Each structure stands twice: as C-alpha cells, then as structure tokens.
Amino acid sequence: MIVRNAQQMKSIREAAQVAATVLDKMCALVTPGMNTYDLDQAGRRFIDELEAESACYKYQVGSRIYPAYTCLSVNDEVVHGIGSLDRVLREGDIISVDVCTRYNGYIGDNCRTMPVARVAPDVQRLLDVTEASMYEGIKAARLGNRVGKISHAVQRVVEKGGFSVIRDFVGHGVGRNLHEEPQIPNFGKPGNGPKLREGCVVCIEPMVNMGKYSVKMASDGWTALSADGSRSAHFEHTVIINKDGPEILSVPLGKEVPALV
C-alpha cells in the first residue's frame, strides 16, 4: 500500500478532477440515438481540452491492446466495453461511462452508470442501490480499518437490495499507475485485508448484476458481460484516506464534494 506525500496528493487530486470533469461532460451527452463510438470520441476531445491523456487508450494486457479512449458498457456489459458505430443507445438502456485519465504523471479514475432517458423501475433501482453501495464503501474507508470493511459494506447494501456483487473485478489503489495495491473486492469480511493508512489513494467501484454474479468475456477479448444476460451497473470514485476520514477526489472542477452522510 503506497502512502502519498502532500505534493503527490495534490497531483492525484488534480488528475481525479480532470477525470471527473470529462465523465460529467460525457454523461451530459447520453441520449437516445447516440452511438457509443461518437460518445467515446467526445471523451477524447474533452480529455485533450484539459491537456490530459487517456489512461485506457492502448492499455496493454499481454498481447491485447485496448483501442478506445474510454470504457462504455451498455446493459449486460459489465466493464471495458468498446465504443462502436453499431451500438446505438435506445430509451430504456443503461450505459456505464468509465473515464481514466493521466494528468501530469498521475491517474484519475471514475465511473457512473447512466439511464438512457426513462428506464424501468427495477433498472433504476439497480442504479440507485449500486451507487448507494459505493458511498457505504467510501464511508468505511477510514484510517485503521481493513480493506475488508469496505468490501463488506458494499456487499451488504447490494445483497440487501436483492442484487449480486461481481467477484471477477475489484477496486484498487491508484497513483502513477492505473492499478496499484491494495486490491479492494466488493465482497468480504470486515476483518480481512490490509489496514488502510493515511495518504493511501484507492478506487472504490462496485460492479453489480441484476441476476447472478457470474460474468463471461465477449469475443473482442475486453468486454465483460453478465453470464445470464441481466443488466449490470458500475459506479466508481477515487478516494484518499485522511486522518479525519475519506475524501472523494473525483469531483468535477467547480463542483462541491458529495457529502458522506
């Protein structure tokens, strides 16, 4: 677990604000009739305007290279969906907009699942419960608590809501690299995992299915889908562990930090 000094924390805060600003602008564009390639290209332009880089574009795992600037996952797509001219958003869809940027050498990372116009009440409830579970996880990210406290808080909210926490993907530390230690599962026991330390920066990101938690991979080698075809939601904030409690860093420029109540 990497502990950041004051200058590093300032840089990560700035990077997270950039990522959050791009996410906010992209979410404002989500509308029926839009294709996900155009939304991804809008994200690229917003990133360029803020003099940042996409941390997703050309991200490499083995021989696979990610081809898009943001991750856009629709309906049963859990994470890492790739923008496409053929994927046209329709009323009733949901889309997870995941923005990871690099700014002055540091990473900002955040995600939000958006309804496309009106959605069915059970789908809206999936979004509400997933977002609520993220905030409960953030509230548990306190100095001296173990990572499992976050995991347990997320799982409790999700399963009480009647949904399933995905096991295959987890939250993580973040800083100069997109994925750093510690890993932060969205399920577990309060006493498990390393203790959180002051100056540690983490991404808390529940990924939740309406049906069962199993996932499968699409033929593109990147997009993860719910195995049973059920809808999936994903919310994420970058958070720093302060002595006075967790602080959300991924807040758009000019906007107030959400209150943790």
Key attributes of the depicted protein:
alpha+beta, single chain, 4-stranded antiparallel beta sheet, 17 strands, 26% strand, globular, 5-stranded antiparallel beta sheet
Description:
Helix 1 (6-29) runs antiparallel to helix 2 (36-49). The chain has one domain (6-248): Alpha-Beta Complex (Creatine Amidinohydrolase). The strands form 5 sheets. A 5-stranded antiparallel β-sheet has the order 10-9-11-16-17. Strands 1, 4, 6 and 7 form a 4-stranded antiparallel β-sheet that branches. A hairpin with a 2-residue loop joins strand 2 and strand 3 (64-65). It is α+β, with helices and mostly antiparallel strands and 261 residues long. It has helices at residues 6-29, 36-49, 121-139, 147-160, and strands at 53-54, 60-61, 64-65, 71-74, 77-79, 94-103, 106-115, 164-165, 171-173, 180-184, 201-204, 207-209, 215-217, 224-226, 232-234, 237-242, 245-248. The radius of gyration is 17 Å and the shape is globular.
